[in-house]
Each structure stands twice: as structure tokens, then as C-alpha cells.
Amino acid sequence: MSFDRSQARCSFCGRHTSDVRRMVAGPGAAYICDECLQLCNDILQDPTPFSTRALELASRPPVVIAAPLPRTQEQREKPDTSEPVKTITLELEQKQNGMILILHQLQYYQSFFDLLYMWIRPPLQPGFSFVPRIIFFLKDTTGKQWTGDHGGIMLARPDLTNGPNQAVYQGSARFRPLPSTEARILTIRAADPLGQFDSPPSQPWHFEVTL
Q: Which of 96, 100, 146, 190 lies in the 20 to 30 Å Cα band around 120?
């Protein structure tokens, strides 16, 4: 299989050859630009596991290199599924053990829904090899349940911190299927796995959302 090198895009940031100074070709359609290569070198030189730069790089959405296929008439008539069909604004905030969890929105799509949130916590100590994450448990008034954070992302946001004693993470968690149209209340419980090492262990956050 051959690839058109003139259409090369960095597999890490998605920029085209014309947008960067240098582009290094890898196997197949894999490429890396000079800036992302420098970022990788900086991460390798940083003795701190899971540094802010490493988390930012790992949280980037994947860059898919593929030639788009022509859309059929049936596909052109289908509604756009890349945008939410319904958005519920939450802006719910709870504090616990020096941490703050803010639930921003529920975004409904055709077959799934996303929970958008922000997590503010003390920074992890250097040398602590653990990727920050939040585990969710959801249940509506019809008895339907959702667990985990499948398809979700978490992005470090050092630009939103108030100083070195604070770390901010912006994330989303994806759940399938959609809540029942008969459901009136959605209970959201969230836990920090690291909280199990606190003394006493942290209790899960608890929110109730009117649908």
C-alpha cells in the first residue's frame, strides 16, 4: 500500500507538512513533527512520572489519517451525529478532603451521553506513578445503571490553576445507552481511587440531577 506523502499529518497533533518546520516519516502513514518530537524528548528528560506534559500528550484525541469516502445520498440525509442532540447544564459543585468536583454538563447524542466535569485537587507528589482519574456510578429512577468511564478523557489544565499547590483536570465520561425517557432523576456518584489511601478513606461524591 502506498501513501501520498504530500498529505502527511503529524500523528500526535494533526498538523500538515505545510504547518511545521520538519516532519519525520514513520512506518505506513505515521508521522511526527519537529515540535511534537521535542515535546517527547522533554517528557523523556523529565524525571517526574506522569508529568503535566505527559498527561497533556496522552489526553490528545487520536489523529486518524484516512482519505474520506464519498458520502452516499442516504448518508447525506442522515442527521449530524457529531453534535449533541440535547444538552443539560448542571454546574454542580462539591468539596471533599481539599478537592472540588464540578459537574458542568450532560450531553446527549444518538446512542450515548457524555458527562463533562472539572476536578480540582492538590498536585500529585513527584515520583507517584498513577494517572489521575475519576470513577463514576450512575443510576436513574427507572433502575438503569451505568458504571466506569468508558470512552472518556481527562486533560490536565495547568492554565487554570491558582498556583503550585493546585492541579486542575478537565474531563468527560461516556455512557451507553441513553437514560430512559421516563426517568426523572439521575443519581451520580463519583470516586477518586486514590482516596482509598487517605485516612480516613474519602467518601464518594453524590449528586442528583433532574432530567
A: 146
